[in-house]
Amino acid sequence: MAVYIGLVHYPIYNRNMEVVTTSLTNYDLHDIARTARTYGMVKYFIIQPNETQAKLAQDIIDYWQTGYGSQYHEDRKEAFSVLQMVDTIEEAIRQIQQREGKVPLVATTDARTYANTISYQALRDKLAANDQPYLLLFGTGWGIEKTTMAKFDFILAPIYGAGDYNHLPVRAAAAIILDRLLGEKWWK
Amino acid sequence: MAVYIGLVHYPIYNRNMEVVTTSLTNYDLHDIARTARTYGMVKYFIIQPNETQAKLAQDIIDYWQTGYGSQYHEDRKEAFSVLQMVDTIEEAIRQIQQREGKVPLVATTDARTYANTISYQALRDKLAANDQPYLLLFGTGWGIEKTTMAKFDFILAPIYGAGDYNHLPVRAAAAIILDRLLGEKWWK
């Protein structure tokens, strides 16, 4: 099953609803790479157009893929093996197309409901059918800019917990979403 | 439903299977507090007997519960409102008993199978019955020491992904486990 994920740093809303490029968070690399590797992602793209930020991310990735980190921590090296820097969402899609021979379907989450809103069960069934590559995108900051969002194929509902508080870290949301879409069938 | 979680820093195995006290990780406070608040935990205990480490954790908690952080980031203040430092697992249990009038049942995860191993579905049903407080414990390092583990009421199977790689961060494992036990019923 060819499933890819991407963490989007541009185009992203800040808290004033201005479109910005967000900064690297080291734990987004480590935690989401470990989750991505556990759930069998082909690649985990860090989508970051800012050159200074991309260089910093690449330095961290190199340290764990081929540098000193790769020698003393085998499990982390393996997690980091899925990480791949790209400068745009389009470049991630292009790399998947090149590798898989098909344009991937793109899914993300949003708090609003769209015509192409899809349930977790329905997307899980699509992934299991295994006839198409998929790219699951996760936003940073206050979410992905809306005209970009409008181009995606499927929008998942956000994760709700027990009440009205709904501020999961992207690292936790990514873990829960991959478990819902690709985890073992643990329920009766 | 009175459900509590705790992050255990002692007694924990290190990579040489020696029993140690593990150190604070700042993201364990932030990420797991946000997840705990989202899934309606009454309290999120940081179980840490080392006084220097406990003081550092308490300083961070104070910053977000009552200090400057609490004034500029309301959502984070609310997440941190569930955090509570204790020095032992027993003290966490005592505080729950005092608040709920009943000793909580204690559950955790382990890679091995025990007589009291329980499925996610079975523990989800127990939590939904809502007749007993529960304390879900998460280990750090290389896991909770085995004679301590033997005293717990229920042991959940570990989270498996797509293959043999199984190195989720505790922050991701906690998110997935709370979603399985307490999240909305998203499956058909």
Descriptive keywords:
alpha/beta, 7-stranded parallel sheet, two-stranded antiparallel ribbon, 9 strands, 42% helix
Structural class of chain A: alpha/beta
The main sheet of chain A orders its strands as 5-4-1-8-6-9-7
Radius of gyration of chain A: 16 Å
How would you describe the oligomerization state of the chains in this entry? homodimer
| First-to-last CA distance of chain A | 24 Å
Strand content of chain A: 15-25%
Write down the overall mean pLDDT of chain A. Answer: 95
Large-scale geometry of chain A: globular
- Tell me the helix content of chain A: 40-55%
* Most extensive protein-chain contact, per-chain counts: A-B, 42 and 43 residues
Tally of strands of chain A:
9
Summarize the helix and strand pattern of chain A as letters: EEEHEHHHEHEEHEHEH
Low-confidence stretches of chain A: none
Sheet bearing the most strands of chain A, described?
Answer: 7 strands, parallel
Number of helices of chain A: 8
